[in-house]
Specification:
This protein is of the alpha/beta class. The protein has three domains: 154 residues, Spo0b-associated Gtp-binding Protein, Chain: A; 170 residues, Rossmann fold; 70 residues, 2-Layer Sandwich (GMP Synthetase, Chain A, domain 3), CATH 3.30.300.350. The chain is 20% helix and 23% strand. Strand 5 and strand 6 form a beta hairpin. The longest helix has 15 residues. The chain starts with a strand and ends with a strand. The model has no long low-confidence stretch (mean pLDDT 86).
Length: 423
């Protein structure tokens, strides 16, 4: 199965906590604090794997988490850094932010990208020693790693894209000009996924040709298979519009040509302006020569370059390939999507965002700001508890409780810590 779009969540590792420790050694009465720092959390790294051609690996696994950093230990020993997580994707995968749709990175021309950074490790208590505080009994907790909801989109790295209605001969043309072996049959929708082929010309020249399947009327709005594969034309420098002029299916080639171009315009106005060559196919079995002549006049009158071919018989194919090669020399390189993603600031929260609820004489406080504050407090140490009390008072938390009606003797509950309020 060809999978070219996937939604996944990634989470970098949490930093390890700093240690609270004091040097203990025979004949040394006051060795001082020696708590080590926590290790840094592992990062999530995106890596290009040239052996991958689809996003099938993401069909069933949707959550990816890097390793956490280890806590610091005694003797000033830092914790081990968390293990990075490497996610492999095919070349040409565009990674977007799920919420905004902004491009985070285009994995074209680069091998690796650090998508989510691990959290910093917390400081051990040795960092908090001062001349007046020689035995700090608290350390700093590690920070959480970055977390993202992303969309992976595979956009083929092809120089030239073959478009057109089903059964017009795109797969046949691809098989004739390259060594690709797409399925070919005389009924609609035989191609269920894009096929790539390398077309060689001259002594050393080559370009990549992609057969984009199933674009029909309404494809830009989700009809048929084209909606799934229109994204693969985004990078193409040149478009070959294959049209069946044989009349064997009773369709009007001019109407087919206009319908497909209208779908391109709806999907992307920029794509509709891409250089386009028309390949009028199946001339060897053309039944209505008057209709064929009318189509050729229509195409030329609209300024398109026209090649009348028969992919099955090989008629006019070499001339088309040589013209494509010459045309590509004057066109810009394959499109690489520019990053327009603005990273979100690490969520720290603020005292104003705290949720305060009252249940009789019990007051509960919750929020990211106070949760992070508690990671850095050792509630078994008097000095650390006084620090916690000062921060709450200076941040206006007590004032807010008083305005809400807290009284002397009421209980304040903050996650797993409870203490009595006193004015």
């Amino acid at each position: 199965m060809f999978v070219d779009r996937a939604e996944v969540s990634v989470k970098a590792g949490k930093g390890g906590n700093g240690a609270v420790s004091f040097h203990r050694e025979k004949y040394i009465s006051a060795g001082g604090p020696d708590g080590g720092d926590g290790g840094r959390g592992g990062s999530v790294i995106i890596s290009v794997d040239t052996n991958m051609s689809t996003l099938m690996d993401f069909r069933y696994k949707r959550k990816y988490t890097a390793g956490n950093g280890a806590d610091g230990t005694a003797n000033n020993k830092s914790g081990k850094d968390g293990k990075d997580l490497t996610i492999r994707v095919p070349e040409g995968t565009v990674i977007r932010d799920k919420e905004t749709g902004a491009v985070i990175v285009d994995m074209s021309g680069i091998k690796e990208f650090r998508l989510a950074r691990g959290g910093n490790g917390g400081w051990g208590n040795r960092h908090f020693a001062t001349p007046t505080r020689q035995a700090p009994r608290f350390a700093k907790g590690g920070l959480s790693g970055e977390e993202l909801e992303i969309v992976l989109e595979l956009k083929l790295l092809a120089d030239v894209g073959l478009i057109g209605y089903p059964n017009v001969g795109k797969s046949t043309l691809l098989s004739v000009v390259s060594k690709a072996n797409p399925k070919i049959a005389d009924y609609h929708f035989t191609t269920l996924f894009p096929n790539l082929g390398v077309v060689y010309f001259g002594e050393e020249g080559s370009f990549i040709l992609a057969d984009i399947p199933g674009i029909i009327e309404g494809a830009s709005g989700g009809a048929g298979l084209g909606h799934d594969f229109l994204r693969h034309i985004d990078r193409c420098r040149l478009i070959i519009h294959v049209v069946d002029i044989s009349g064997s299916e009773g369709r009007d080639p001019i109407e087919d040509f206009e319908t497909i171009n209208e779908e391109l315009k709806k999907y992307s106005p920029d794509l509709a302006q891409r250089p386009q060559i028309v390949a009028a196919n199946k001339i060897d079995i053309a039944q209505d020569l008057e209709q064929t002549e009318r189509f050729m006049k229509y195409i030329k009158s609209h300024g398109y370059e026209l090649f009348v071919i028969s992919a099955a018989a090989g008629t006019g194919v070499r001339e088309l390939v040589n013209h494509i090669a010459a045309k590509l020399n004057g066109l810009p390189p394959i499109t690489v999507f520019e990053t327009d993603y603005v990273p979100k600031p690490r969520i720290q929260g603020s005292p104003e965002d705290l949720e305060v609820e009252n249940f009789d004489d019990v007051w509960t406080i919750e929020g990211i700001w106070i949760e992070r504050l508690m990671q850095n407090v050792n509630f078994s140490d008097y000095e650390s508890r006084m620090y916690f009390d000062r921060v709450l008072r200076n941040a206006g938390v007590y004032k807010r409780l008083e305005e809400m009606g807290i009284t002397d003797g009421d209980t304040i509950s903050i996650y797993n810590v409870e203490f009595e309020y006193s004015e």
